[in-house]
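Comment thread on ticket #2218

A.B. wrote:
> Attaching the input chain for the structure job we discussed in standup.
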Amino acid sequence: MNTAIYDVRNLTEEMLERAEVRGEAEARRATDTALEAVEEAARVIRRGGLVAFPTETVYGLGADAFNEAAVRRIYAAKGRPSDNPMIVHLARASDIGALAAALTPDTVRLIEGFWPGPLSIVVKKSAAVPDAVTGGLDSVAVRMPDDPVALALIRRAGTPIAAPSANLSGRPSPTAAEHVLRDLDGRVDAILAGNPCRVGIESTVLDLSEGRPVILRPGFVTADGIAALLGKSVETDPAIFTRDGDKDAARVPKSPGMKYRHYAPEAEMMVLEGARERVKSEMARLKTLNERLGRRVGTLLFEEKAFLEAAQGLFAELRALDDAGADLIIAGALSEDDALGFAVMNRMMKAAGYNIIRV
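C.D. wrote:
> Ran it. Output below, let me know if you need it in another format.
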């Protein structure tokens, strides 16, 4: 397959507004290249093809959410287990009615408070949602991304788009177009090459399908923020804190990232946890020791309270260390007392296969 690549880095919210207000013909004359590229990508979606596109979190690999054959192509392109559910992306919050069996007051409050943005909400699905999207579950995760390219693609495709991250299954999530190209060139029909993702880790996934709010995957939208909006406590699924989900073959994950190996570089990886100076000292010792054994060692240590920078940079750093030929990556843990630090550590621990060393 020949993967088409379209440069849409200059597409802005203002350009989209012109397209909506003035009409398609005039918008195209004013914003020619980017909108024509999105139009072509939308045609690919409508034909049952696969398009990788940027969001504010990570790049997604999208297909028409109501086209089961197209959705199954995503699993094949990524090498993704078929019971690993996907998130459906909307361009308008009101479109959730086509996917959800019913909306609760809590769902409506969360949509009004956090959409567009990095919050996916798990609700009971309607009969129209194919089982391939949900991994056979009776629930579906839905979100409205906060990115002009993503919103333009979904609107012009005229359908909700099912989209996991646009990487080979198990690899670090892609936060730049070159990451997508490296993993999926020749496997997908088109890539919309936009700007690097400004959040850098996947959306928070909040389960409302059983009534009470439960976080299935931590992210930029925090439990405290959700609790403040809803006026009630928010639980965190215990599977987030352990690797038990990886071992339980019978367990059906309700969210991406809950069961299978995720975010992993090609290199072996370990995470050092402890007081900052001890982590630095042990990192230097292990680096020297392993280099004496002939291994190429890469290190990853973010500034102590630079949680946003860590979120934005984690996956790109892991990929860069792989590209540099590292055999071993030694990373320093972040504080999990901070909600965003906790979300980044969730990814870091999975990337390291829970190879955590206390120093």
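A.B. wrote:
> Thanks. Noting for the ticket: Residues 244-250 have pLDDT under 50 and may be disordered.
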